[in-house]
Design goal:
Blueprint (H helix, E strand, L loop, with lengths): L2 H5 L7 E7 L11 E8 L2 H14 L3 E3 L6 E2 L5 E8 L6 E3 L5 E5 L4 H10 L2 E2 L11 H7 L2 E2 L2 E2 H4 E8 L3 E6 L18 E9 L1 E2 L2 H18 L19 H7 L6 E2 L2 E3 L7 E3 L5 H19 L8 E2 L16
Bound molecules: flavin-adenine dinucleotide.
Length: about 325
């Protein structure tokens, strides 16, 4: 079927573009063209689009700010979906500290809207350059804050059930992981968080502290996608990579950051193959050196929109 000619007919409010380079949609600035990119602007369009893609067996991938994604050099044979302004609104439940945020909203915009309302608690999000949907999907966290700890309700699409709202407690969130991810057939549409009354000055000062810490400890001069590996219990992935002697190691255009060894930076024209080869080397070396199998935090997608982990290293 020529689905390119059909897709626009399913949508009322959303924008459709074809052959969009994934490198423009990811913070690592890597990835070939997606056949199609849809910026979805309403729940109605999202429902119609996902139901149609699933019934036709057309692969799709949810992308927030692409700040935790490695996209394939060959691109995506299917549809990349982003949630647009229509799904990025902020609403306070009257007389309460509950705030409902659209999943397309950027984290920093959420924190600043809450500050205007005199509500705080989630300032750690200013340091995480993704969307609310990505923060729920990845259970993003930093500075002792974690998204699941604030989440009260989540509104989401689920394959076969449409869009509904559930209490957050119904989902088993874990460290940098949740069952609410596009690749698992669930798309976060909005999230309601329990915030705390806080003065704008206090909120601003917490934001500044977190941002200053980031400037000091993380690479900002080259494109990256945050931590490559989850920290193993009781240790730090960056420390283990450094101990294996690979801080600053370069492979093609990709390099282990000289500032933070759990970051890979795109020094110059890196491609996904460079990054994957470097990841394999890091995992193998850390396993040989420390006996620890590092688990990926970064999401690695393939050309059919599936997400995979490179194979676990084997001890020699
Ligand atoms: C400089 C830098 C610093 C970072 N620091 C941190 C940090 O301190 N802590 C931390 O936790 N992370 C950090 N990250 C990683 C990243 O920002 C987070 O994982 C973020 O939550 C990803 O959000 P996103 O919108 O960019 O999602 P994407 O990277 O676009 O997607 C990530 C995953 O979520 C899925 N997804 C996205 N939106 C939805 C949705 N609406 N519904 C269902 N699934 C969806 C995607 O399909 C994919 O599987 C950092 C990244 C960078 C570049």
């Amino acid at each position: 079927m020529n689905w390119r000619g059909e897709i626009g007919k399913r949508l009322r409010d959303s924008q459709v573009r074809f052959d969009v380079p994934l490198r423009e949609l990811t913070t690592l600035r890597i990835g070939g063209p997606a056949d199609c990119l849809v910026d979805v602007e309403s729940e109605g369009d999202l429902l119609a689009l996902l139901a149609w893609l699933e019934s036709e067996g057309i692969p799709f991938v949810l992308i927030g700010k692409g700040s935790n994604l490695l996209a394939p050099d060959a691109g995506l044979r299917g549809v990349a979906i982003r949630l647009g302004r229509g799904l990025s609104t902020v609403q306070r439940r009257a007389g309460t500290a509950f705030v409902l945020a659209g999943a397309g909203l950027a984290n920093a915009a959420y924190v600043s809207r809450c500050r205007e309302l005199g509500l705080g608690g989630m300032e750690y999000l200013v340091a995480i350059p993704g969307t609310i949907g990505g923060a729920v999907a990845m259970n993003a966290g930093a500075h002792d804050g974690e998204t699941a700890a604030f989440l009260e309700h989540v509104r989401f699409y689920e394959r076969g059930s449409g869009i509904r709202t559930c209490a957050a407690g119904e989902f088993p969130f874990a460290y940098r992981s949740s069952p609410l991810r596009g690749q698992l057939g669930r798309v976060v549409v909005a999230a309601e968080f329990r915030m705390r009354e806080m003065s704008p000055e206090t909120i601003r000062s917490r934001e500044a502290d977190f941002q200053e810490y980031r400037r000091r400890t993380q690479p900002r001069e080259f494109p990256n996608c945050g931590s490559i590996f989850k920290n193993p219990p009781g240790d730090f992935a960056g420390r283990l990579v450094e101990q294996a002697g690979l801080k600053g190691h370069r492979l093609g255009g990709a390099q282990v950051s000289e500032k933070h060894a759990n970051f890979i930076v795109n020094r110059e024209g890196a491609n996904a193959a460079d990054v994957l080869e470097l990841i394999d080397l890091l995992r193998e070396s850390v396993y040989q050196e420390a006996g620890v199998g590092l688990e990926l935090e970064m999401q690695v997608m393939d050309t059919e929109g599936r997400f995979a982990s490179p194979a676990q290293p084997e001890r020699r």
